[in-house]
Amino acid sequence: MGGSAYWTKEIKRADARSPKEGATRRLDRLRGVLRDLDPAVANRAWREVGDALQQITDRYSR
């Protein structure tokens, strides 16, 4: 099974179990992709992901 087909199927399975597990698998996929990039680009991407997750957390914790 190819990489993209693996992740698509894996994320769908995780989503079926729970939204949190699906999000975790998506972050695993992102981690794998960012591992091969320039560190400056990867750090910027992680910062953006962190900011987006913080906004979601703030929105749903009210």
Main attributes?
3 helices; 0% strand; 62 residues; mainly alpha
Question: Could you walk me through the main structural features you see in this protein, from its secondary elements to its overall organization?
Answer:
The protein has one domain. α1 (3-17) packs antiparallel against α2 (19-34). It has helices at residues 3-17, 19-34, 39-60. It is an all-alpha fold and 62 residues long. Helix content is 85%, strand content 0%. The radius of gyration is 13 Å and the shape is flat. The chain has 3 helices and no strands.
Short description:
With 62 residues, the protein is mainly alpha-helical.
Low-pLDDT runs: none
Taking all Cα atoms into account, the compactness measure Rg is: 13 Å
N-to-C SSE series?
Answer: HHH
What proportion of the residues is helical, as a percent range?
over 70%
Specify the number of helices.
3
User: Care to count the β-strands?
Assistant: 0
The major pleated sheet works out as: none
| Cα distance spanning the termini | 42 Å
What average pLDDT do the residues reach? 88
The chain-level structural class is mainly alpha
